[in-house]
Specification:
CATH superfamily of the largest domain: Type I PLP-dependent aspartate aminotransferase-like (Major domain)
Helix content: 40-55%
Shape: globular
Number of helices: 14
Structural class: alpha/beta
CATH class of the largest domain: Alpha Beta
Number of domains: 2
Number of strands: 15
Distance between the termini: 46 Å
């Protein structure tokens, strides 16, 4: 049976554990924030990289067809749609990719829409490139988030929106959008000539019977959309900097190719390709075990909080390995960060990072770690709040 090994990461120059002083001003916190795993990558990845390192020559690398084949077969088996090799392009990260797409698909001062709360680098990509951020708040009903389609279309029309960045599955709300929800969003975008950037980095991480629908499997939207994914979240390979950009449309692919030729970033490093290929070819059992760990951590978190703090709202975990938790019944927005950090000794991604002040009582908690870390975090919160 494939093992999933928890590893101590402190003092290894990892951002999650070793960047605490820069981000939070303290070093002695339990980090439950950055979205990577505290697990070793699959053994098949380690074996492939060890073999490459043992060879000892790290010269110029030719990307083999087997790399593309491994991803194509993975998508067909796990997501039920056929990717063509010609669609596939490289970026060093999903975040880099949507920065680039914004640059060549929109103009300075164009309006770009996101659904909040949402992964905060979306905001940075829009604003850092001189575009204007437009937000449409998801509707929250007891922790379950849905798209307010009326507001979505209204914001597009009123602001003459040029592009929409979709997060699918949604980070941090944990939604796995249905095919019907995606189609409604895409039809609105088609109607109003809005280009779609679909961030699908968490697409392999779904739970409790929910299944990701790839954007290109929804319908005929190829001429108005680019999708991005990666093995980085799936197999904990973010440091390998290898992401996959999918562009079925010839005209859009030419735009991408012209842009990346201008910045001369058309391929990645050999380590990333080797790691990704090994993971897609042999990492399925490891991923199944990781999903089991994350789902059990989620159930533990939800049940323990419900027992000790019944008014805490934990959103259903349909996708991602990130829990979205609302402490509004116990803490005011100005109390949340001091409580979590000073009283509990915890480091989270805080709700207001993902949107406006209305998310000031939320935290996003990383569940891709040991049960002991999850239990320690929950215990610190519940014991401290029950004392107050």
């Amino acid at each position: 049976m494939t093992q999933v090994n928890y590893v101590e990461r402190k003092h290894t120059d990892c951002e999650k554990w070793d960047a605490l002083p820069e981000i939070f001003g303290e070093n002695d916190l339990l980090p439950m924030w950055v979205a990577d795993m505290d697990f070793q990558a699959p053994s098949c990845v380690l074996d492939a990289l060890h073999q490459y390192i043992s060879h000892g020559v790290f010269g110029y690398y030719r990307v083999p067809d087997s790399y593309y084949d491994s991803f194509i077969k993975w998508e067909e088996k796990h997501h039920g749609y056929r990717v063509e090799k010609d669609w596939i392009r490289f970026s060093p990260g999903v975040v880099s990719a949507f920065h680039w797409i914004i640059q060549f698909m929109t103009k300075p001062s164009d309006k770009v829409l996101v659904l909040t709360p949402v992964y905060y680098p979306f905001f940075h990509a829009i604003e850092n490139n001189g575009r204007k951020l437009i937000t449409s708040d998801l509707h929250n009903e007891g922790g379950v988030y849905t798209v307010d389609f009326e507001d979505f279309e209204k914001k597009i029309v009123e602001n003459h929106v040029s592009a929409f960045i979709l997060c699918s599955p949604h980070n941090p709300a944990g939604r796995v959008w249905t095919k019907e929800e995606l189609k409604t969003m895409f039809d609105i975008c088609r109607k109003h000539h809005v280009f779609v950037i679909s961030d699908e980095i968490h697409h392999d991480l779904t739970f409790f019977g929910h299944k990701h629908t790839p954007s290109f499997s929804v319908g005929d939207y190829q001429d108005m959309m680019i999708a991005i994914t990666a093995p980085s979240k799936t197999f904990n390979l973010a440091g390998c900097q290898n992401s996959i950009v999918l562009i079925p449309d010839d005209t859009l692919r030419k735009k991408w190719d012209d842009f990346v030729l201008g910045i001369h970033v058309t391929e990645g490093n050999s380590f990333g390709y080797i790691a990704a290929r090994a993971a897609y070819e042999h990492g399925e059992e490891w991923l199944d075990n990781v999903r089991g760990i994350v789902s059990e951590n989620y159930l533990f978190l939800k049940e323990d909080l419900k027992k000790e703090l019944p008014d805490v709202v934990v959103s259903p975990l349909e996708g991602t390995y990130l829990a979205w938790i609302d402490f509004a019944k116990y803490l005011k927005p100005e109390e949340l960060k001091p409580f979590m950090q000073k009283t509990c000794g915890l480091a989270f991604d805080y709700g207001d990072w993902f949107g406006n002040e209305s998310y000031g009582t939320f935290v996003r908690m990383n569940l891709a770690t040991s049960r002991e870390n999850v239990a320690r975090a929950v215990s610190a919160i519940t014991s401290s709040l029950k004392k107050s």
